[in-house]
Hints:
Layout: E1 5-10, E2 14-19, H1 24-33, E3 40-44, H2 50-61, E4 65-69, E5 72-76, H3 99-107, E6 109-113, H4 126-134, E7 138-141, E8 145-149, E9 157-159, H5 165-175, E10 181-185, H6 191-202, E11 206-208, E12 214-218, E13 227-229, H7 234-247, E14 249-254, H8 264-270, E15 274-278, E16 283-288, E17 298-299, H9 311-318, E18 325-328, H10 339-344, E19 349-352, E20 355-358, E21 368-370, H11 374-386, E22 389-394, H12 396-399, H13 406-412
Helix pairs in contact: 1-2, 1-6, 3-5, 4-5, 5-6, 7-9, 7-11, 9-11
The structure holds ligand EPZ.
Amino acid sequence: MEDDRLEMTGPQWMCGELLVQGSKNAALPMLAAMLLVEGVYILHHCPQITDVDHMLELLSDAGCLTHREGHMLIVDTRGADRCSLKGSGAGKMRAGVTLLGSILGRLHAVEIPYPGGCTIGKRPIDLHLKGLQQLGAVFEHKEHTLSGYARKLHGADITLDFPSVGATENILMAATLAEGHTVIRGAAREPEIAALAGFLQKMGAHIEGTGTSVIRVKGVERLHAAEYIVPSDRIVAGTYLLGAVMTGGEIRLLHVPTAHLGILPHILEELGAKVEIQTDQNGIAVKMDGKIQPVPWLATAPFPGFPTDLQSALMAALSIASGPRILEEKIFEARFQVAPELLKMGVGIYTEGSLAVIEGEARLHGAHVRARELRGGAALIMAALAAEGKTDISGMEFVKRGYEDIQGDLKKLGIVLH
Ligand code: EPZ
């Protein structure tokens, strides 16, 4: 297999057990939080993915020393005295935005390349800036850079118009060092927020209410470095669970805090799978030996609703369900990028605005397809497993942004790759 392509022949069914990798969307804000205070940090179970590599480049640009030993990451932020990341890779990805809160918290000034949108949407940051302004920051928009300054950060009572994950993370980080009390109302409830809060609490922050929509923070004078374990990636787990439903077979995923899966186990059962939750082992087993039942109209929603990051994989699964169904994408405005590629594999899909009508009953066949973004690429791989014949998938560099070793994972789940 060439580096950015993957070939496989279907149909195959999944059978096996897998330890799920660390979470991309939990690890990235934790790395950003390290800029809140100088020290030597250790992260365990950190996924080896390109988005983490890019974030480590940013931290190095900010003056940090980083060292990786497998899934363990050591970050020394004692030399992180630069508030400007203008020349760095910050523009290469969006996670640079999460540095706003931590750099402001510590250095009271920050400059980053203006974060662009991406294939799934414009990705504005108005909620981030509004919340940080209420904490005392002032921002200046230049042609390509965003600068922020805060003589002093003070607590505030902040209400988010939308439970933005990134905005909640940025405001939470800055509030840990703001003078006084901060309340974040309408906060995101995703498990990654609780994971970040757990890391910040180990660093000495006073935070209550994560997992609910009202988070309370009592600012402290100073934090300190900490060691932490990154939770498993609920979206990687959900991708493979939906893949098992598509191919038939039986898989068990370990190391997955099943509470992080939200409504997903219920949806898997609605699709016709037998689901067994093993809370003592943080495990979930799925067995699928019949046709996929079409779930009623399904819309993506903030946690604990159906995650937008699994919408493409669900679209692929519904394409072979027994009957037409409608999917509504309510989080991002352009998240049906995978549809034209699934059409090449014989799927009947019609999209209009935020709605996708999936005909169902498709007989998937192999094709040359291209991943255009991270989660659509993973969905194409799941579809290729259920398709008759050979599928060649290019654009695997997108998949590597979030899936550490999807080929290795699939082999552990009984899949034969070329
Ligand atoms: C995080 O993105 C995740 N990324 C995304 O995962 C995930 O899809 C998303 O949360 C929703 O769960 C990381 O954690 C690194 P949002 P984020 O702010 O924080 C609008 C993946 O595949 N919005 O909750 O950017 C925004 O346009 C990635 O792993 C504003 O309007 O998501 C979007 O429509 C993709 N103004 C909606 O809110 C703002 O200031 C949700 O965005 C911020 C967001």
